[in-house]
Each structure stands twice: as C-alpha cells, then as structure tokens.
Amino acid sequence: MTEHEFRAAEDDERSPMTMDERAVWVSLVVFVITTGAYLAVVVPRALSQPVDEVSWVTPMLWAIGISVVGTIVGSIVAAIGSAVGLAARGRDPELELGSDERDKEINRLGSRASYGVVSAGMLAVLVLAMIDADTFWIGNAAFLFGFLGTVTDCVVKLRAYRRGF
Question: CA–CA separation, 72 vs 102, rounded Å?
Fold first, then answer.
C-alpha cells in the first residue's frame, strides 16, 4: 500500500461518527458547561440579594458567546482530530466522515423536538412580560428555555444516531 492509498473498514470495526454527530456531542458538552458556569455565578447572587439588583446580563452574554465560539472551535478541532486519526489508520476521512441523507433526517428530527420546548419557553417569556415580571426572570426564562431546547435537540439527535429512528 502506498502512502496515498486508503483501506476499507473491516467488518468488525466500529464506524466513526460523522462530522454532524461529532458536532452534536461538542454542542451538548459546551452548552452544559457554559450554562452550569452561568448558573454557578448567578444563582448565589440571586440567593443573597434581591433579584432586581443581581448582575446577570454580563455573565449571560459571556455564557452565550463562549457557547457559540466553543461549539465552532470544538467542532473544528474534533473534525481535524478524527480526520487525522482515520488517515493515520489508513482509512479515507472524506468517505467515512461525510454527511448523508440520514444526517439530514436526524437534524430535522432534533429540530422538531426542540421546537416545542423553545415555543413553550417563548410563551413563558411572553407571560412574564405581560405580568411585568422583573427583567431578571424574563431574561433567565429565555436563557433557560434556550438551553433546554438545545439539550432536547442534542439528546434526540444522539439517540437517533445510536439507536436509529
């Protein structure tokens, strides 16, 4: 075998994750970590002082920004790592890591599942705004339901990847 030839996967070899599945894992991990960090900063503040005095905007913006950048950078690093790993084992990264129709269907399935969660969250946010709740509660409800929608999306997709749909 020359240095530019790739071999086919063996029958008993586990197929690698597609780039889409790897990106879902990265997104889930990053969002759980950043939301956990946000809650670790804001909840103690909310417990020790009136909520209208809690400084929550800056930590939330940091959590959102780090989530977006972390997901992008993490997905790129994971893609490079998996491609290098496959190439080192003599397997074709383009052939094995590319997206297909199954990835598109799984993406649609996850999006449909998270739509209900995010819709319920926006209804909650509207109700909070209608009753003139403090902006702390409105902002945090939007943030929480965004997080829950993302987790729902990721869990549904990962379940479909692992167990079928």
Answer: 22
- Give the burial string for 74-99 (b: 16+ CB within 10 Å, else e): bbeebbeebbeebeeeebbbeebbee
Using alpha carbons, list the distances in angstroms from residue 44 to 67, 106, 123, 145: 22, 38, 27, 20
Q: Say if CB 138 and CB 128 are below 8 A apart.
A: yes
Give the type of residue at 94: E
Q: Where are the domains of the chain?
A: 19-163
pLDDT in tens, 93-128: 666 666 778 889 999 999 999 999 999 999 999 999
pTM: 0.81
Give residue-wise pLDDT tens across range 28-64. Answer: 999 999 999 999 999 999 999 999 999 999 999 999 9
At position 15, the amino acid (one-letter code) is S
3-class SS at 35?
Answer: helix
